[in-house]
Structures are given as structure tokens and as C-alpha cells.
């Protein structure tokens, strides 16, 4: 189990290194922060002083090595807008983003797993067809369309909920439901497929033939074995919630990390953008690492290296 965990941790570290490198290079190819921040009418001397002050006058390799060394020491740089540490600027927005992503995760897990199991147990019935039709609609509709539609219905037409802002818990309902419905639709389809595959296995038929109660067959045999492939998509959903918050927070004017990313990109605030991308990348890597380790805990064959999880 130790070697299995170490190999997954090593892969996660390499992924984070690639994320750091990609974020650094791509941001420096998208435009000159000096022109964006100082404006097009500033004198050339002001541009030169700005670049010199922020180290942008150095060759990109020198900038990268300095940035990588600073990140290794825990220094993620300072905001070019107000001079504060980037981690401080991003950190004050994290609680607001968690206020959306954590309820959205609980919502899509409860709804998605329940709907997927119900569809599998009622295969080819109207229940199955209805759940799959709704789930196909859910994961094919873009998040901004889903968000705008919910806002139009419940905020504009019915006036039950506020259309944007973060003044009360009611303001979080529409963004949470928007993220939760999309995630639940994806999880429902994967759960249904995994359950149908498990329900067709010989050991399920054997347990039923021996008179084991059907509830016990489902809870004790089918669900634990169906959990292995389903964990993959759940891990992906956990990691993608922060990234998905970018669109949803912008639609509902929610002042979280996602909305900060949009404004930081527009303002070429490099340190803030890099910090947010690292946060998103770290979240996704950590979620997938947790899934890999959970595979080894659920299926002992993986710890022995005799099988590999389906991805």
C-alpha cells in the first residue's frame, strides 16, 4: 500500500509542476501587463519602470526560475493592482467560493447517486427513461445557459429568489442548484452504467438465488463494487467545481474566486491569476489523488498491482 500511495503522490507532484509551468508561460504570452495597468497613453519611461519593478524586463527563463524558486518557498507573489500578497487577495475570496461548492457537491452527490441507482434498478422502465432524459439534458446544457435559465424563471418571472449578489443565504440557492444539477446529471449516468454492469455479474445472481434479501444484495454487494468506477467521475467533479465556479459566479455576481479570476485576467494581474490557477490545479490533483488512494482501499487487488482502475 505504501508503494502504491507513493507512486500516486509522485504523479501528483509532477502534475503540479506542469501546472505551474503552463500557468507561467501562457500568462506571459497573453499581453504586456504594463500596458493594461498603466494604460496606452503612459510614457515609455513609465512602462520601463513598471517592468523593471516587477521583473518583467528579464528573459522569460530567468523569470520562470525566480518564480519557481519563490513558489517553492511559499511566496506566490504580489498583486500588481494593490501590492498585497496574491495569496491574501485570493484567500479572502475562498470562503465565499466554498459556500457554493460544498453545498453543490453534496447536492450533486445525493441527487446523482440516488437517480443513477434508481434508474439501474428500474432498467428500461419509464423511471429509467425519464431519469436518463433529464440527465442528458443536464450535462449537455452549458452552465451559463442553465444559470441564466434558472435566473429568468425563479428571479425574474416568479421573483422567488434574488438574481445575484451574496448578501444572504438565499443568494446562494440559484448558483448552488446550477452547479449541482450539472454535476448530478453526469454522476447519474455513470452510476447507472456501473450499477447495471455489477447487477449482471454472477455473484449477484448467486446471492439472489441463495435467498439473500434484495436490499442486502444491493447495499452489501452491488453498491460497493459499483463505487469503484463511479469514484473516477466523482473525483473529477470535486476537482472541477472550483473551475466551474468561474462561470457561475460571474452569472450571479457572486464575489468568489471565480469572479476574481475573470477580473484578474482582464487586468493582467499575473500573480493573482497564477495563484488561482494553482489553487484550481491543486484542488483537481488532490481530488484525483484521493480517488487513487480510495481505489487501493476499496479494491485490495490494486494495492498488489494486479489490477488497474478503469478511467
From TrEMBL:
Q: Which family does it belong to?
A: Belongs to the binding-protein-dependent transport system permease family.
Which PANTHER family does this entry report, sorted A to Z?
A: DIPEPTIDE TRANSPORT SYSTEM PERMEASE PROTEIN DPPB-RELATED
Please give one Gene Ontology molecular function term for this protein: dipeptide transmembrane transporter activity
Entry's CDD domains? TM_PBP2
Name of the protein: Peptide/nickel transport system permease protein
What keywords does the record list, in alphabetical order?
Answer: Cell membrane, Membrane, Transmembrane, Transmembrane helix, Transport
What topology does it adopt in the membrane?
A: Multi-pass membrane protein
Where in the cell?
Answer: Cell membrane
* Cited Pfam families: BPD_transp_1 (PF00528), BPD_transp_1_N (PF19300)
Name the PROSITE patterns on file: ABC_TM1 (PS50928)
Domain ABC transmembrane type-1 as annotated: residue spans: 94-295
The keyword Transmembrane is annotated on this UniProt entry: yes
Q: Which organism is it from?
A: Albimonas pacifica
Task: State if Transmembrane is listed as a keyword.
Answer: yes
For this protein, the parts annotated as crossing the membrane are 12-31, 98-121, 133-156, 168-188, 226-252, 272-298
List, alphabetically, the GO terms of the cellular component aspect. Answer: plasma membrane
